[in-house]
């Protein structure tokens, strides 16, 4: 990463913010404004649809053969964000893979706290399966809170007796509501996005009094990952949530799961959103696309293998 690129990203992220906890309206407006500055690839086809009983955005490549399906969960701390704010990420994954992505507009806290988001994600997955999508042709992907949903939705799907998706791609996932990772302290002041206090503020909205010591809230420290599909966990060294990924990777290895822990130096939380501006972002998305190509079957190949 060049010094010029690093300075450009830092200038975006380190703009002055008001002191003290922000209102939910301010959090949502600020996140939307930030993500609106990111680059979305040209030539995508965007169509509104419904999965389960929730709206979703279908993101398709402008040309080429459909190669699989991505069920995408946006970031935003479970309190903000939307399929539109995630377009810099979904769009780049679609452009790189040729897959069709369904980006879910799951319910947000504080209006709809835990476990509403997981319920919506599981319902969306069930709707795709019921509609005829072969799970061998489908991957879960998401960033930040949505990266956490890739894991907790798999837990919920397994408990419901549903087949696992072909793969998981989690970008800077939030995986520990207990905030017990060492990086919460060792990366304090380095992370331009989060502090323990800011995460506690939004986290309390999502928890709404629920005990964080349970697998669906803290899978990095409590989940049994037996039977999970191959996983790619990407994170940056400059984020307080780094150890959410490192500890989940260790649990995955212990459970016999194929897992890649992909940590990039000197980059921030969900640095992949800076594709087109930051070289590391483009390279990470290239690696994510390769991982998906290796694990997600083409629909025609999946049909042929079932015969």
Explain what the structure shows:
The chain has 307 residues and is α/β, with parallel strands linked by helices. The chain has one domain: Rossmann fold (3-Layer(aba) Sandwich), CATH 3.40.50.1820. Helices cover 39% and strands 15% of the residues. The chain contains eleven helices and eight strands. The protein has an eight-stranded mixed sheet, sandwiched between helices. Strand 7 (231-236), helix 9 and strand 8 (259-264) form a beta-alpha-beta unit. The longest helix has 17 residues, at 279-295. The termini are far apart. The model has no long low-confidence stretch (mean pLDDT 94).
Please give a handful of descriptors for the protein shown.
single chain; 307 residues; alpha/beta; Rossmann fold; eight-stranded mixed sheet; 11 helices; 39% helix; globular
Give the low-confidence spans.
none
Sketch the topology as an H/E string, one letter per element.
HHEEEHEHEHEHHHEHEHH
CATH homolog superfamily: Alpha/Beta hydrolase fold, catalytic domain
How does the overall form come out from the CA principal axes?
A: globular
**How would you classify the helix and strand content by structural class?**
alpha/beta
Q: Main sheet: which strands, in order across?
A: 1-2-4-3-5-6-7-8
Mean pLDDT: 94
């Amino acid at each position: 990463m060049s010094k010029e690129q690093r300075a450009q990203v830092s200038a975006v992220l380190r703009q002055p913010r008001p002191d003290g906890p922000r209102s939910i309206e301010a959090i949502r407006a600020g996140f939307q404004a930030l993500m609106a500055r990111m680059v979305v690839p040209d030539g995508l086809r965007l169509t509104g649809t419904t999965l389960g009983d929730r709206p979703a955005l279908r993101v398709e490549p402008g040309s080429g053969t459909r190669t699989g399906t991505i069920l995408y969960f946006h970031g935003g701390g479970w309190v903000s964000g939307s399929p539109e704010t995630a377009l810099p990420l979904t769009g780049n994954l679609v452009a790189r893979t040729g897959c069709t992505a369904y980006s879910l507009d799951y319910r947000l806290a504080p209006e709809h706290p835990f476990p509403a988001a997981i319920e919506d994600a599981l319902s969306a997955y069930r709707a795709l399966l019921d509609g005829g999508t072969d799970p061998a042709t489908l991957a879960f992907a998401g960033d930040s809170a949505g990266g956490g949903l890739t894991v907790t939705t798999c837990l919920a799907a397994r408990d419901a007796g549903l087949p696992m998706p072909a793969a998981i791609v989690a970008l800077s996932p939030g995986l520990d509501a207990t905030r017990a990772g060492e990086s919460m302290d060792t990366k304090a002041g380095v992370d331009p996005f989060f502090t323990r206090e800011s995460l506690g503020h939004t986290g309390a909205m999502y928890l709404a009094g629920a005990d964080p010591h349970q697998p669906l809230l803290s899978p990095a420290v409590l989940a049994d990952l037996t039977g999970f599909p191959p996983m790619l966990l990407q994170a940056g060294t400059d984020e307080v949530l780094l150890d959410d990924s490192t500890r989940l990777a260790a649990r995955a290895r212990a459970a016999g799961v194929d897992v890649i822990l992909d940590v990039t130096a000197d980059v921030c939380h969900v640095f992949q959103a800076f594709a087109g501006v930051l070289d590391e972002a483009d390279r990470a998305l290239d690696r994510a696309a390769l991982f998906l190509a290796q694990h997600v079957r083409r629909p025609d190949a999946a049909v042929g293998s079932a015969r």
